[in-house]
Amino acid sequence: MPVKGHRIGQLEFIGAGKHGEVYKIDDQRCIKIYKKSHYLRRELAALQRGAGAPFFPRVYDWGRDYIVREYIPGTPLSEYLRSHPFTEDTVRQLADMVEIMRRLGFRRADTRLSHIIIDGNGKLWLIDPVNTMKKSPPYPRKLLKGLYRRGLAEQFLAYVRERYPESYGRWQPYLDAVRDLPSDSTMIASSRLGVSSVADSQEDAQT
Predict the structure, then answer these.
(1) Fewest Cβ atoms nearer than 10 Å: which of 119, 120, 130, 195?
(2) Average pLDDT value over all residues in the chain
């Protein structure tokens, strides 16, 4: 299938999900082919709204069923945190990401860990923002859910409480709702059996 001068069958396949398939064009660009037009419209709106933020990929072009955007090599944060420490810099970037999205007017200042890429320099990128324009609770429920499963949420919340106290105050009434999750030891045991990767895949299949 040709798309803007490219034959998809000749491009390197990167991955696929609920909303579409992604192919690498070159070391700077990739193309995402969307299954439904409203997925494209939502993701394009998110990328355009976040164009000035440091963690959104640059958009080069788009058409009826595709977006050509910046290619970000790296590892999904959901996988990275299984074998790497949750550093102060990563905590800071996550908190800043949520706060910047809120200030930019995203209806869902939230994302799954699997939708964030950490590159070779330790920089975080939000690579799948298709649902950030949908209405959601007034706190980052999906992000906190992923962190609680890994026993990392309290470290994140401690930073937010100090750096963004107003945001923490808004979240606080809802935090008990996401605290009733498996403990850190349970998560580690599950990870060794490959259960955590299954859980991430099931989450990605949802909204």
Answers:
(1) 120
(2) 87
